[in-house]
Structure formats: C-alpha cells, structure tokens
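Every protein is a chain of amino acids, and every chain bends into a shape of its own. Below is the pair of lines this work produces for a single protein:
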Amino acid sequence: MKTMRNIRIYLLGVATALLSTSCLDKEPTHAILADHAITTVEEANQAVVGIYADYKSQYLYSGNLTLLPDIQADLVYAVNGYSNTYGDIWRWNINPTNSDIEAVYGTLYKVIGDCNFFFEQIAKWENTLVDDDAYDRLQGFKGEVYFARALAYSELIKCFCKAYDPATAKDELGVVLVSSYSNPGEMKRASLYDSYQFVLNDLAKAAEALDSDQDEDAANLYNTPYFTYYTVQALYARVYLYMQDWDNAIEAASKVIDSNKFLLSDANTVYTGNYSYYDYMWQYDQATEIIWKVGFTNTSYGGKLGQVFLNYDFSTYRPDYVPGSAALSLYQTGDLRYNAFFGTTTTGYSHGLTWPLLIKYHGNQDFINNYNILHVSMPKVFRLSEQYLIRAEAYCRKKQFDKAMTDVQTLRKARISSEGSSSLNLTEDNWLENISNERVRELYMEGFRLNDLKRWGKGFTRTPQTQSVSDGSSLKIDANNSLFVWPIPQHELDLPGSAIEPNESNK
C-alpha cells in the first residue's frame, strides 16, 4: 500500500517553494532541514524557533488563513478597479486548483512535518539526558511543539472539513493525520471525530508540559509570541466550542479568563498620546489581552494583512476590498471599535469612492515610522475577548443567559464609550443573532466568519453597494453550499496511490 511519504515530500516541497518568496528568507533559522539531525537541547531549541517561524508565513495568519475566510463571507466588497487579488475566493468561484487555498493546505502540513521531524529526532536521545535542567527545558520545547501541531491541525479541520456534529462526526471526513516523519502511514483521511481527538490529545500533552507557566508573572504571559499553558487553554476553548462540547468550552475559557493573567484592553482609557489601550493594541501590536501573537521584527515578518484593504503608497489608497455596509451598520453610536477599525477616506481611483476603509491593519507604527514598512501587523491569534465570546456562546447553548450576558457586557464595557449603550439582553429567541453580531464587531477580518456561518448553519446574501464589482456583489449563499468547506487540493487527489477522498466542493 502506498504510504504518505509522497504527500509529506510534496507538501514540504510546495510549502518551501511558496515560502521562498516571503520575508522569512531573511532569517536563516526559519527552516528545519531534513538532513540536519537534532542532537542537543540547544539544537532542539533552534528547531522550535524554526517552527515559530513557520507560523510567520504569508499563507497563514499574516495572510491567506486570516483573510480568505472573511473575504469569502459577508464582510467586504470588491471595489471597481481592484487588482483581483483573492477575486475567485470573493466570487465563490473556488476550484480544487486554487493556488491560495493550496498554499494554506501545504503550509499547514509543512508545520506538521517540521513538528514530526522534531519529535522523531529528539526521541533518539532524550532519555539519555542526565542533566535535570536540560531535561526540563526539552520537555518545555516538546509542549510547544505539541501545541504547534495541534494548532495546525485545528486550522486544517476548520477549513477543509464540515462543521462538527457529535451525532455524525465518526462518519464524516476529517483530515490526513500524520504523526511520524519517516513513517507517515497511509495517504488517507481520518474521520472528523478522530481528527478532533488527535488535536485534543496533542493539547493534553502540551498542557502537561507547559503547566508550570501558570505560576509565572502575568507580565511574562500576556502579549507573548510564545506558546504557553494559557495558549493551550485558549485553543481548547475554541476547539470544544466547535465540537459543541459546551461544558468543556466553558471550563477552558474560564481557566484563561479567571486566571487574571490577561486584561481586556480598555477603549475608554487613554494609554499614551491619542491612543487608548485598545487603539494601541492595533497600532503597536502590544496589549494585556493578547494571549498569543505571531511575533514579527522589521527583518522577519510574513504577509501584509492590510495590503488588500488599503494599498497605500504614501500618497493614495487603492483598496481591493472595502467593508460591507451591513457589517458597518452593526457598530452602534459610542462603539469605539468603529474608529479603531475604520477610517473614511477618498480613494485614488478615478471614480473617487469615499468610504470607511479598514485601517485595523494599517500596520505597526514602529515599522512604518522607522522602516517605511506599511500594512504589516502582527496577527493576534488568541485574544481574551474571543474567550469571553466563546464562554458566552457556550452559556447560551446551555440556556444560562444571565451568565452569557455578564460575559458579553464585560467585553462591551471595555469597547463602548460612556455616551453609548453597552446594554444587551440575551434570550432564547435572540441570543444567536446577538452573539453573531458581537463576534463580527469584535473579530472583524480576523478569519472567523466563514466557519461561524458554517457551524451555525447560516447562509448570507450580498447586494451591490457603491462602486462594488458587479461580479460577486449580487450573491445569495445557502447554508448548505458545499464551498463552506474548501476543496482538497487537486494535486493531493492525483498523487499515485492516493486514497484521499474529495470534499463535495471538489466535485
């Protein structure tokens, strides 16, 4: 039987080729070389550094993985004159050879391959360590790598699998599970149930290894570019929510919220100059509510999240996509997120569209002011606000609306001015609409929307707005549309000996 060796080699080759054009090449330690053995704790450390660098890729959180799900959904409109970047995604003209989708798939499997290489290498000598400190360091590294693999698989499942239903998960297709670098096994998709269990198992190992982080000073845990015990709990909460395991979602989110290691960035309180704590988070990528961010430097960064929303050249703005009016209307008077996210500007197009553009990802101000690097923002993959929203949604599923309202109100009080109203009443009849709207307001263009609609069984409708591209602006997507689940890249299906089954969107 054909093994998965071909898929591993292919994916690593594709991902490496894709990454070769990114800014990661500025860092010589960004890659783990298959012919370079890991023989010491310090070399293990460098390998972990390489895995973190994998996550800088423009095809993951600083690009495709964040942008594509929200561009595909109902949050933005393509503008007349746009460059057609991600155009097929926006028009729902997605086929199995789409290079943007392929890049997400290949790069996530590159992360997984690097994690598996790490485990395979250190297994050869870790039990020979006699130095307790060195052994403890290695266990910490293992915890980080278990988390890195769990995170990659959770994103593959989110993008390429159906929403989880406990009643049918064992019969639905999951992803190809690979836990060995040298002996990857059969090229076949596991069940959705088993795929999620794989993630949970890795998270359990990560939590055990990183447990000591709990005792660290909060200043060493928030705003970190490193995986910690609380990063693990944040992903636990997200995964359990997607699995409809409400009790465990509440428990995991509570471990983060109740730890008091993180604090919501208050949009009502001035931090420095004209910036509130909330503004500062988006302008400088630093905040007490960041559980984990992808850490960039001016010489080592991935994609440019703000590019397609601004295309600013220090003179004019020529956005490919502008916020949809329906999304903009969700922000009530006094919601300070609106001014943090949007700025009304006249574009440089001949039609002179004046519109609220997305400035959330205008770019890190230090990068702009010191190095003239525009549109580069550090992805904030886990924030405290999401944990409140996860817990609130899980409480609603359990009909504990008072507890849910407390969580949502806590978040809104940190985002809405005293002149506005932060009141919100959640009931059996309205909770899903309210939670959905609050997730849009808080998590706008952070990559959650498509999966949210998928797991809620909701479609959407687009109607044309000022200077929107005609092809794609009039669109009605039913909840059962197969393209809520991205197609498996065609090259995976065509590999000799492949037993990978396609998605409905492949057909």
